[in-house]
Amino acid sequence: MIILGVLVIWAIPSRSADPEVLRPRVPAHQIKAAKAVTNPLPAAPETVEKGKAVYHGKGFCVTCHGPDGTGLGNIPGLVGKLPRNFTDKAWQKARTDGELMWILRNGSPGTAMAPFVPLVLTEEEAWQVLLYVRAFGHD
Ligand code: HEC
To answer: Which of 34, 48, 53, 120 counts the most CB atoms within 10 A of its CB?
Structure first.
């Protein structure tokens, strides 16, 4: 029984995105403006490395989203409440950089995802860490 449980948990992160995960987090009246915002930083390796340092350091994203970016995966019944699984390609595709920046500024209301800009991270650090978040979606 224990072995079965371990197998089930191991198998879950490979599930594709749940519709609840894909549902936009930015409120409808702000989403057009949010989507228009683009990352001013180039995705150069050294900038992604800076983002990695933020992820593991002052942003402490790693504590919830995990060192491999999977969070806790997509667990049925809890999807949309858990730290996002950044390796989920369907989710990566569903979001613009501007929407992700909106989340770093405002948090995701009603969840454990808190606002980080400007109290914890500068705008520049936020764009750096978002480049690193995007890197989890690459092959
Ligand atoms: C205390 C735990 C926690 C920490 C620390 C945390 N997150 Fe999150 N994060 C969450 C949760 C929970 C969600 C899911 C919120 C939701 O479903 O709306 C989330 C969602 C997100 C999303 C997805 C929002 C969307 O549009 O789907 C992004 C991007 C994100 N976090 C980035 C980060 C970054 C970058 C950091 C570090 C600066 C960070 N998070 C730190 C818990 C955390």
So the answer is: 34
